Amino acid sequence: MKTSRRTLLKTSAAAAAAASFDWTRAMAQAETVRIGTIYDLSGPFAAGGSVASSVGAQIAIDLCNEKGGIGGKYKVSAVNADSQSKADVAINEVERLINQEKVDIIDGVYASAHAVPLAAKVEQQKKILWITTAVATAVFKDKNLQYVFRAQIHSDQYGQAFASFITEHAKGKLGMEPQAVKVALIHEDGPYGVGVAAADESYSKAAGLQVVLKEGYSASAPDLSALVTKIKRSGADVISHAGYNPDITLFLRQARESGLRFKMLFGAGAGYSQLDKLRATFGKDIDNFCNIDPVPAQLLDPAKLAPGVGDLIKIMVERYKAKTGANDVPPHCSMGFNQTWVLLNNVLPVAKDKYGGFDPEAIRKAALDVDIPPGGTIQGYGVKFYKPGTPLSGQNERSTPVVMQNAGEHISVVWPTNIRTQDPVFPLPKDSVYGA
Amino acid sequence: MDIYLLEAIINRILLGGVLALLALGLNLIFGVIDVVWIAYADIVMCGMYALYFLYAEYGVPLPVACLIAIIGVSILGVVVHLLIIAPVLNSPPLNQLLATGGLLFFLQSFATLLFGTDFRNIGVRLPILEFATMYISFARLIAFMVGLIGAVVLYLFLKRTYIGTAIRAIAQDRDIVGLMGVDQRRIYLVTSAIGGALAGLAACLLALQYDVHPFIGNTFGPVIFMICVLGGLGNMIGGFAASFIISQIIAIGGYYSNTEWSYVLAFTFFIVLMFIRPRGLFAR
Q: What CATH number does residue A236 fall under?
């Protein structure tokens, strides 16, 4: 067959274009690691800390790329998904990230109610789920997960901190034996709230505290006045509350309107960690409330952390404020940043260099090699994951929460005592609208 | 009687007043136009945002801000009717449901886009009434009283005015009323405006007790819908009574068992009633 000059030119151009396209694509694939991120960017959880977590994660990704990428060589490209505060949407979005976007690593997850089904789903598909924020112990407990990891604290630790704080201070601050202290445990009825309340109950009973009420409610309940009335009837001295944002504001407002008085209220992170938002609604009324959560990194003394970690905190805080315009940097920003940073800097480089790639199997092995001593992350704790075959396989065994107390816009660490920045105000002062 | 139980009951009666107002608006629209506004609670959300911005951001005096919010939501009701309801008036019920369901998602997403996901509070702090170791929220008391007054005014409007009579007539038999010279289109618009105004009034009352955020409608929507169905969709007196019945089941159930079980109890009651009286508790 005779080939004309025109046809030859056309064919050559097409071949060159195809060749160059494939080459470009191959280069892009070689240089970019695609990570799916999933947070609640809309719906009630968004303002409860999920958006703050997603901003923290994005700052970690940006910072990693500015330093040349993973190991200084491989850029990170985030494929973002919004789980809309709905578990079914979270599942569908992760399905999309894995099957359509073809990502092997999912980073994020704010709500424990989403983390529980997602962990099972991602594990089944042998992809990596890197949980940054959700805390329910139930995500890992007795599941022997191999591909799901969480450097974040878990809900059992809230109960431990709650009971330890009261036991330590009951006599000195309240003038009561711990056995005389009555505690009420209230919680939203998802895995997060249930997990925290179960741990609170277990550790409180072990410490000899009197659990006079333990009750769950739906986070979208339109009214909590009956619950408030029951707490009044129980005569509780101390309340532990695990809730999100709409239910926390509803509870506190109805508690004030119903004349509920107590010696202290302990929040369990989530909505209680969004101090600027709570303050906008309640002003000074919430002064001196305690909150148990991983520490916001900026509250730690950089001198007590590993070299360079203090600088990292400074950058994170500056960027969060610049991105959001907020004055207060919530703990959720630190959670999103910290866990994502560990993934990008302590896991993925090892996966590539030691185990030969960024596939789930290599990442899993690299994660199990992680051994960061206490003080090595921006939230103060170290990272070492429980090994497969142990009851909490995949959970960080070195994570620790703190008890914080807020007065005005200033937050202090009041427990553990060895790292506290202030002696706790306990009980609430008499002039507090909630003070007993 | 146990003083704590009494407090729980009174608090729930007060909340029942606001729910009754919402149920009245939804029932009025269904009774006359025969379309269920699934997005009704989200229209309330629009009113709450209007009040928040007028009062808390722009410093408009509260009564004036409330009036503007009510008028604004009333106009929104008319717009919703013209743009969404009117085109599907003769469509199958499923299509109508999808149209108003779509409006629900549109309003929530639009509010998220415009205002973000933050919780906003109008910052009105009303005193608390205390007697015999019982505490009653003044905000709830006001909401209850205004809700009741709103219901009475609506009742008088429907009973004593020509348009009210026409509205009731359409609710009873839309075909015959058309033959008697009543302009159905005009009545539909008036009904949508009144339904919107009731949503606006409820928004003002709820803003005294709740933060506004794009998803506040999810808190009230399912309960209001259940109340309306329980009382008989379109039956205004039924919906009014059902709001107090459901409120008390939740209050007493919550007091003697726990908050989660109280809702299980309320929904069980609802399901059983649907078997016994499928057209609602007060259907004739």
A: 3.40.50.2300
